[in-house]
């Protein structure tokens, strides 16, 4: 369904398990950034009522996920560390088109968002199937389902709101680009790292 070029090596979970506090902190901040991204889409496209309604719902869900991760951190006696840079997301940002109409920019932002959700969904699947901690396995399975829903929402809106862009062609370009950069990741105890 996701069409990603490179699957995450399940051995990545061994890295994650070596520092659960780090993956949970990174994950919490990923959820906060996802909420902020949805709010940014609302800010720049407030005239599209259907989009605003759905992005506000996604922002709410992402903040709920942030709270859920934070609750796990607290329950385990761990500490929510400082916000981290997400180098993977920053590399994806470089691929976003900087020219074209507002509608073109919206569509590329939606594809960018779909790409992040697709990779997060894939990583959560790997975690849910390979992590030794039963509580976290179930948690990541549930979040995988939510991320898949966000992925399809972003992709669907990109298709709906395109003007002159071949969204399927542009999505393939995103998939190719992501495939070229993801080879640098999967070596750290972070969601995209």
TrEMBL record:
One Pfam match:
MiaE
Q: Which segments cross the bilayer?
A: none
InterPro entries from the UniProt entry: Ferritin-like, Ferritin-like_SF, tRNA-Hydrxlase_MiaE
Q: What is this protein called?
A: tRNA-(Ms[2]io[6]A)-hydroxylase
Query: Could you tell me which species this protein originates from?
Result: Flavobacterium ginsengiterrae
